[in-house]
Inverse folding.
C-alpha cells in the first residue's frame, strides 16, 4: 500500500511540475503594449546576421516589432552612416546590445519579461 501511495504522489508531483503558468507576454496585445513602452525607454543594437538578434526580434512578434523597430540600430555592412556612427560610439562587444534611458547597458538576448523589468516597463 505504501508503494502505491508513494508512486501516486510522485505521479501527481510530476503532473504539477509539467504545468506552467502562462507568461505575461504570450498575447499580441501585451507584446504591443510592452513595445510601446520600450520604444520610450530603450534602444536595441544588432545585426541582420546575428542569430540572437533575430531571436530577439521574433520574441516581439511582427506587430510589436513594427511598434518598436524605430529604436533598432543596425550595426553591420547594411548600416546607414548615422547608424554606423551610433554603433561606433557605444563600443559594445557582442550582439544584441540594449541601452536603456536609465543608463543601464546589457548584452545578449533577453526575454520580454526581462526587458520589461530592466526598462521599468513592468510598472506601467
Amino acid at each position: 500500500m505504501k508503494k502505491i501511495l508513494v508512486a501516486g504522489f510522485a505521479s501527481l508531483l510530476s503532473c504539477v511540475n509539467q504545468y506552467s503558468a502562462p507568461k505575461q507576454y504570450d498575447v499580441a496585445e501585451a507584446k504591443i503594449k510592452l513595445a510601446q513602452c520600450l520604444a520610450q525607454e530603450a534602444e536595441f543594437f544588432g545585426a541582420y546576421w546575428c542569430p540572437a538578434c533575430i531571436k530577439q526580434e521574433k520574441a516581439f512578434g511582427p506587430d510589436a516589432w513594427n511598434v518598436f523597430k524605430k529604436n533598432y540600430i543596425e550595426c553591420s555592412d547594411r548600416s546607414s552612416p548615422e547608424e554606423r556612427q551610433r554603433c561606433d560610439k557605444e563600443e559594445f562587444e557582442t550582439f544584441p546590445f540594449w541601452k536603456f534611458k536609465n543608463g543601464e547597458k546589457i548584452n545578449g538576448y533577453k526575454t520580454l519579461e526581462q526587458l520589461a523589468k530592466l526598462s521599468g516597463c513592468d510598472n506601467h
Remarks:
- The chain is about 55% helix and 10% strand.
